[in-house]
Each structure stands twice: as structure tokens, then as C-alpha cells.
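Section 5: illustrative case.
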């Protein structure tokens, strides 16, 4: 079927969640599409100096302004959205856990206020029918390891508008071929890839990820320079949509801030035969893979 997909490349403002949400709404509210992908950590910015900074920007997936806004936007525009955000999961500590001494229990409760706060680098898929899905980044990049916990949901393939199978991965997951391969084996037609890329290789590597798995990929990168005290990062932009044959259907410039939509033929992702006698699923020999 013909399916209108695209991405929003922009420059999130560090620590300005509401401004970022307003900007995303403004950029896509009049866009006719079936699926739009936003960057990694699009709501918060990226360059953190402490866990407390992340917590101040983090959302509870089930109950947050971010989830509520995109649920409303998706319903109004009849578009599915994939959005990167910092996720917080708060779990009350089990008071029944054994401690060597009652004083140790009181000290632990005072230190943590009885609540464990786990942070994930996550993305949500929000659909016009109100359904929503969550993925937590599996492979953390560089200083992300200081703030976030590696994802615990595995690689997620979920239904987007018109029941198209969308596989979710985030930024540095690209470095591991198993990420895209797992999503393909789980039935993904499109890989949605929210990103905040600073290394120069991903965009070209995603041509191979699409080709070797015969799937569409949408890498939605952010752009701009971000500074937090003595830290600064430059993001590479060049967001793109790639076909199952590894063809660049479009690629933005490094500094573009815009929404770009293209119509794809999703059935092309069902063609898993590179030759008459080969099939990329049936020809696998996992017994020889480490």
C-alpha cells in the first residue's frame, strides 16, 4: 500500500520541554502524513551534566504532558508519531526487604524517600486510535551510561496507522546490526530511528541496515549545537528515509529545521528475495552465529 511517512528535524532547546513540545506541534499540525518520526530526546535536549537534570525533564510514559499532547495531536491529524523522550519510572521500595539493622532501613528510606527512580532513554509510538507503545534504548552511547539504565523491553515492533508494522530503535542502536535484524525478524516493515547523532557514520550505515533486512528506515536526527556549562556537542542532521534496496529516498541538509514527507510503497518491504534462489530469512544459519 502507499503510505505517507516522514520526519521532523529540528533543534530541541535544552531544559525547555514546553517550548520543544510547542515547536513540534507547530511544525506538524498542518502536515498530511501517516507516520512522522521526531529525534531522540526531542522533548528535553541532550547534553546533561547530572542525573538531577535528567529527572527534571523526564516523563512518566503512562501519565505525562508529552504523552497527552501527542495523543491529542495524533487524533486531530490522524497521524502516528514516534517521539524520543527521557522516561522516569518511579517504584516504591519494598519495606519488607531485609536490612541488617532497623537503623539501616531508616537510613535507606530517608536517602531515597522510599522511591526508586529509574531513567530510560525512550521513545513512544502514539496512534490516532489512542493506542500507544514504548521502547527503551538498548545500547546506550557514551555519557548516556551515566544517567540512563539500558532498556529492558527488548526491540519493539508495534502497529502504527493502518496496522503497518513499525520497529523502534534509538540512535546508537544502529551500531549493532542485531538491532535492525531483530526488528525485521519480528516483522517490521519500517524501522523508526529517532536519533541525536554526533558521529559521522550512521546515515551511511543505515543504507546497509535497510538493504540487508529489506526494510524501510527513517532516521530522524536533530541538528544544531548544544552547550551545557563546559560541554558542547554538534549534531549532524542529515535525517533521511531509506528504501529496502538501500536507496536514499531523501536526505536533509545538516542544518535544516523542517518536516519532510514522502510516499512509500510498503509492500516493497515484503520482498525478501535478492535473487531467484535466495531469501534473507530462509537462508539464515543461526546455528553458526555466535
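Designed sequence:
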Amino acid at each position: 500500500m502507499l503510505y505517507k511517512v516522514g520526519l521532523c528535524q529540528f533543534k530541541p532547546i535544552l531544559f525547555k520541554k514546553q517550548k520543544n513540545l510547542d515547536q513540534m506541534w507547530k511544525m506538524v499540525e498542518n502536515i498530511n502524513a501517516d507516520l512522522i518520526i521526531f529525534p531522540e530526546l526531542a522533548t528535553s535536549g541532550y547534553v546533561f551534566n547530572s542525573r538531577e537534570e535528567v529527572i527534571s525533564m523526564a516523563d512518566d510514559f503512562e501519565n505525562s504532558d508529552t504523552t497527552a499532547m501527542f495523543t491529542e495531536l495524533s487524533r486531530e491529524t490522524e497521524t502516528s508519531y514516534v517521539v524520543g523522550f527521557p522516561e522516569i519510572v518511579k517504584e516504591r521500595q519494598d519495606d519488607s526487604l531485609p536490612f541488617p539493622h532497623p537503623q539501616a532501613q531508616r537510613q535507606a528510606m530517608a536517602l531515597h524517600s522510599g522511591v526508586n527512580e529509574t531513567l530510560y532513554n525512550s521513545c513512544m509510538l502514539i496512534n490516532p486510535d489512542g493506542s500507544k507503545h514504548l521502547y527503551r534504548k538498548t545500547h546506550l552511547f557514551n555519557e548516556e551510561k551515566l544517567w540512563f539504565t539500558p532498556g529492558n523491553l527488548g526491540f519493539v515492533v508495534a502497529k502504527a496507522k493502518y496496522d503497518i508494522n513499525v520497529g523502534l530503535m534509538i540512535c546508537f542502536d544502529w551500531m549493532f546490526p542485531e538491532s535492525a535484524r531483530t526488528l525485521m525478524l519480528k516483522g517490521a516493515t519500517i524501522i523508526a530511528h529517532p536519533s541525536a547523532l554526533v558521529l559521522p557514520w550512521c546515515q551511511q550505515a543505515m543504507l546497509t541496515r535497510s538493504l540487508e533486512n529489506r526494510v524501510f528506515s527513517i532516521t530522524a536526527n536533530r541538528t544544531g549545537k548544544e552547550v551545557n556549562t563546559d560541554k558542547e556537542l554538534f549534531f549532524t542532521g542529515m535525517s533521511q528515509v531509506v528504501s529496502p534496496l538501500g536507496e536514499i529516498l531523501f536526505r536533509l541538509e545538516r542544518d535544516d529545521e523542517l518536516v519532510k514527507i514522502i510516499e512509500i510503497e510498503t509492500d516493497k518491504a515484503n520482498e525478501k528475495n535478492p535473487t531467484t534462489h535466495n531469501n534473507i530469512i530462509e537462508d539464515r544459519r543461526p546455528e553458526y552465529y555466535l
